[in-house]
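8-oxo-dGTP diphosphatase
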Amino acid sequence: MILVSAAIIRNTAGEILICQRGAGGSCAFLWEFPGGKQEAGETAADCLVRECREELGIEIDIVALIEQTSYTYPDNKIGLSFFAAQITGGVPQKSVHQEILWVRPAELLQYQFCPADTEIVGRLAQGE
């Protein structure tokens, strides 16, 4: 199983940060929450702090663990940890993603997310 951490980051307007994957690999051009794969010896929270720093150039604080779940793709199984987080430094920069956007929760359903994210997307869109 591949362990993945993802951040639900809200701005002061209540919008949520989403990122569009680039070409290649699974979920090409689909949307996801910031985050990535845990490395050996790394906690889920440490992974998320590192990934946000590397991929978006931001520093975050983890607020709370929202949910842990798993999803089975045809080629592998993913263990997901979703965290509420807040930006404490920097402004999100597009470096590895095709696009990054701040969207209102109700607008999340207008974007095609990676299959592993669709359940939490639905709940966030309903205001949970």
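thats it. The helical segments are 44-56, 118-125. The CA atoms of residues 21 and 107 lie 18 Å apart. bye
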